[in-house]
Amino acid sequence: xxxxxxxxxxxxxxxxxxxxxxxxxxxxxxxxxxxxxxxxxxxxxxxxxxxxxxxxxxxxxxxxxxxxxxxxxxxxxxxxxxxxxxxxxxxxxxxxxxxxxxxxxxxxxxxxxxxxxxxxxxxxxxxxxxxxxxxxxxxxxxxxxxxxxxxxxxxxxxxxxxxxxxxxxxxxxxxxxxxxxxxxxxxxxxxxxxxxxxxxxxxxxxxxxxxxxxxxxxxxxxxxxxxxxxxxxxxxxxxxxxxxxxxxxxxxxxxxxxxxxxxxxxxxxxxxxxxxxxxxxxxxxxxxxxxxxxxxxxxxxxxxxxxxxxxxxxxxxxxxxxxxxxxxxxxxxxxxxxxxxxxxxxxxxxxxxxxxxxxxxxxxxxxx
Length: 368
Ligand code: DAH
Description:
Layout: H1 4-17, H2 21-32, H3 37-44, H4 50-89, E1 105-106, H5 108-122, E2 126-127, E3 133-135, H6 136-139, H7 150-154, E4 159-163, E5 169-172, H8 178-187, E6 193-202, E7 213-223, H9 228-243, E8 250-257, E9 260-273, E10 276-279, E11 289-299, H10 301-306, E12 315-322, H11 323-331, H12 344-350, E13 352-353
Parallel strand pairs: 2-6
Antiparallel strand pairs: 1-13, 3-5, 4-5, 6-7, 7-12, 8-9, 9-10, 9-11, 11-12
Helix pairs in contact: 1-4, 2-4, 3-4, 5-11
The structure holds 3,4-dihydroxyphenylalanine (DAH).
């Protein structure tokens, strides 16, 4: 009969004396491995009488579990000691430069949207939004373009194959103007409004100055005594802040939009310098060309009504600006299509550092 106590003492002693993980693993194999001495004892359990199992069996099991525990404990201790040694031996050289991670850049359109939102925030405008898949009531009808209105044909509209639950046709919004209607309805028709709505719009059109998707910012101000003078001041202030110069030339021309009455088209004066259009200049229009910048006007009574406002009590102005055009003008780019090509080289040249908080003085090609 094997002396279990002696075997236990021997095993625990060897385990306690093991100085590395390999030695410990060798001991595990020696005692608990397939051919191990304790495993061998376990195999004898089957042949024992019930009485023997009561005494011998229990003792063998106890031996096995104390050796198993001792191995686990020894392993934990050796691993902790190994980590201690490693930490003590390793030092970190904090003066080493970190490997440079490739940095993305902010697209000029995003940059300009941020700049515009910042300027309008200073003027007390909140940002509103609406869906890009719009129904034709919000996109056209409510904006005083009923079905078969010729102005609908001015927008090369993408129609979707399905109808809304209410049976309305669905379109990719052709302008940000439907957000006017949504904002008015959300406001409940009984409070002043001052919002901008930046976002993507879609038209079936493509050449050097038109892309099927482009960006607009809509503006809407509703109050009881809002007039064209407020519109002019707002646009002047906007352009001065955006182009970062005081000498902005502004020209308001009578025009037609279904959603405004009267409607004005707003031009800004520019001159050519080093092959680039430069906005602004001295007060005399001499030597300047005019460029159409945006559409605007006093909100049409039909539109106010569709938005839940009583035109006998409320009035306001609205405007819509092409963001891409503003970006091209400010940062001297000439092909609109490059905006949407996703060419990483173009972006690293014209993009803005993602680490700069958007400012009005951000420069071109910060990452270049
Ligand atoms: N929605 C017009 C367009 O995309 C732009 C526009 C013109 C918006 C006049 C307005 C406005 O709010 O008053 O062509």
